Amino acid sequence: MSGPPAPQHGPAPDWPALLERACRGEGLRSVYQPIVDVARGVVAGYEALIRFEDGPADPEMWFAAAARHGVVDALDAAAVRSALTGRSTLPGNCFLSVNVSPMSLVTPAVRAVWAGQGHLGGLVVELTEQTPIDSYDVLDGDLRRLRGAGAMIAIDDAGSGYAGLRHLLTIRPEIVKLDRSLIVDIDLDEGKRALVEMMGTFSGRLDAWLLAEGIERAAELEVLTRLGVPLAQGYLLARPGPAWPALDPSVALQLLTAVAEHHAGDTLRGLLQPAPTVRTVDEARSRFTDRTVDVVVLLDEHGRPTATMTAETALVGQAHPGIRFNVDTPLAEAALRAIGRDRPSRFAPLLCTDAGGRYVGIVPVERILQAAVGGVDDAARSTRAKSR
Fold this sequence. Notes:
By secondary structure, this protein is α/β, with parallel strands linked by helices. It has two domains: 15-263, TIM Barrel, CATH 3.20.20; 268-373, CBS-domain (Roll). It is built from 15 helices and 15 strands. The strands form three sheets. It has an eight-stranded mixed beta barrel with strand order 1-2-3-4-5-6-7-8. The protein has a four-stranded mixed β-sheet with strand order 9-10-11-12. Strands 13-14-15 form a three-stranded mixed β-sheet. Helix 2 packs antiparallel against helix 3 (72-83), helix 3 packs parallel to helix 5 (108-115) and helix 14 packs across helix 15 (365-387).
């Protein structure tokens, strides 16, 4: 036995009149939500989101009503036109992602919008998951034309609905957007973490970028950073707004810090150790009166490291010309450069700097070798465990 009908709040929307206005481009506008490059802590692009000023606020209700009244292609075209109004002012080095349903993509109304845009470089056409794709052959021609004009293709809500593996394999998108259901509480769910990691590997094989949307908690972002997801979007990072919302500097700093900490074990940063700094040979000699000092770093007039000195070399006024490395240089790259030095300097400590060239510490070559041996040991232990 069914329960009582749900209470009605106000009169039902006059959908024919509302849709007629919206399809003419009246009573709707676009807002833009930043898509963030996690590794660099900068905005890489924006997703255009439609907002309706009359009637219900939920866009899904509008598109469902448009489907019932047979005008979904006209509403899609109006939404795309609205999204593209700010394209000429899009910040440099950013892309603009525009949503459109697969069924509308092949209609004359939407095709006319693309035709009026000229070259489509910097645009991402994001195929939504409102309806299944009955025939990929029907889509193929339009996707080819869009790519030929410079656009990229994205698949929305991958991991749910119709966005299955066949969908991804057939369309071969440039961006794969993870469904928000996979992101919510990912820090508490090992299964979700495993699936996102698998999707990252799969997207990499397709030469596509993985994008996690709907991030609202710091713990979710931390896990996604650890999993190496390159693009992120959500209220935690930035809310939608008029063209073009900026990323809060504190959020950018948090991202850069998290990425640096995550990769510290794979770079020189994880092996840093302090060493005293001096400006002259005489100053170096005086530092070695402290028997606990093994090496000192010679700085130039700008405070940049140039060489290392030991007690023996300081005594005769010699220094080992240093080789400078950014502190986030991968260990393998640093090792190859270090062993390529002249024999007398081959095992001199590496001089590490930050992005501004400022001295931050040294890394003895022996520590790099120890890290490499430790990695080999870990791999060997893992192999032995799997063979049991």
